[in-house]
Specification:
By secondary structure, the chain is of the alpha/beta class. The protein has helices at residues 25-28, 30-33, 39-52, 81-88, 108-111, 132-144, 161-172, 190-207, 222-232, 253-259, 267-283, 292-299, 305-312, 318-326; strands at 20-23, 56-61, 96-102, 122-127, 148-153, 178-183, 210-215, 236-239. The chain folds into two domains: 20-283, Aldolase class I (TIM Barrel), CATH 3.20.20; 292-326, no CATH class. 42% of the residues lie in helices and 14% in strands.
Length: 329
């Protein structure tokens, strides 16, 4: 991909064929219900993604069974090949399948064989800036085995400009195919996203990499930030069904499909899935979406874990919580 030229971004009524939509419902949404998705739900989502024209479906994490108790999670925390094959068969469809591997929480050398024997097409490697060297070792292994890779640099809103520049240089010189902007805390505004998106796009053109965006919805800006990046030329766009994801959730798939003008993306099939399956997920006790505690962690650029605990404990003293967040300064 060396020598990649920056594409024309088009108009509101045109489309870029190079855009790829990634459904992260099973992975980010799995953080809400401990990955306890029924086979019926997963099969129906797989079929809905195919019918809707979605390009990639992230099946979950490739977590290390030596670090996580398998009995405490659903199988999509571990994404064993046999479990994926049971859902997709030979997957003779345009939809590609992905898993996420967290630096320090997986063992790809043990748990990922050659691509030719696997239903998985892409490994998305999640890292913080200080663990990028370990992420690059994982990239080399996965690419050597035949997988596409992305590197998703988390919590980018807390990184300095110098750290971001160094990270982009390291990732640009690596074998990974796609570099992701990840607004883990949902703290960024479209104006900020425009600046950082430009920086990532410059690196993408320089090193021949695709750029992706994974946004969180703490301030109701996940969709806005995603389409802001799209306007800049970012091609890999993450979304989840009804925004299902950790804490405030993510860019909603139905919003993104409704926005994109490529006729291959068909909103109605995703609406059918939502109508049939998402009320059941809500009734099972899964909780996500914009709420005041998430607003505050977003505004103050904090990890959402205190807000998650606030909601889990059914607290109602939001002003006290506001002062607790301030006290962390």
């Amino acid at each position: 991909m060396a020598g990649l030229q920056r594409e024309e971004t088009g108009t509101l009524l045109s489309f870029r064929p190079s855009i790829r939509v990634i459904d992260a419902t099973m992975r980010d949404g799995g953080l809400v219900n401990n990955f306890q998705f029924s086979d019926q739900f997963v099969t129906s989502l797989y079929q809905a993604n195919i019918a809707s024209g979605v390009d990639y479906m992230e099946m979950g994490y490739k977590a290390d069974k030596d670090l996580f108790d398998e009995s405490a999670f659903g199988k999509w925390k571990f994404c064993k090949e046999d479990d994926i094959f049971r859902i997709v068969g030979e997957n003779k469809t345009p939809l590609k399948l992905a898993v996420m591997a967290d630096v320090g929480r997986c063992n790809v050398e043990r748990d990922l064989g050659d691509k030719k024997n696997s239903p998985i097409d892409m490994v998305r490697i999640a890292t913080y800036i200080n663990t990028i060297p370990a992420a690059l070792a994982m990239v080399d292994w996965c690419e050597k085995k035949g997988y596409e890779t992305t590197v998703n640099v988390m919590a980018i809103s807390q990184a300095s400009e110098k750290e971001i520049d160094l990270a982009l240089e390291m990732l640009g010189k690596s074998a990974t195919r796609t570099i992701y902007i990840v607004d883990s805390y949902g703290s960024m505004y479209p104006e900020e996203m425009r600046v950082i998106g430009e920086k990532y796009m410059e690196a993408g053109v320089k090193y021949g990499k695709q750029i992706g965006i994974h946004a969180h919805n703490n301030q109701n800006l996940a969709f806005a930030n995603t389409i802001e990046c799209t306007a800049l030329g970012v091609n890999y766009l993450d979304a989840t069904v009804q925004g299902m994801g950790r804490g405030a959730g993510n860019c909603a798939m139905e919003l993104l499909l409704g926005f994109l003008k490529n006729p291959k993306y068909k909103l109605v099939h995703m609406l059918k899935f939502i109508e049939k399956h998402m009320p059941e997920i809500r009734k099972s006790g899964a909780v996500w979406g914009y709420d005041l505690p998430y607003l505050l962690t977003g505004v103050f650029n904090r990890h959402p874990s205190p807000a998650i605990r606030y909601i889990k404990d059914k607290r109602e003293n939001i002003v006290d919580f506001y002062h607790e967040i301030l006290d962390q300064e």
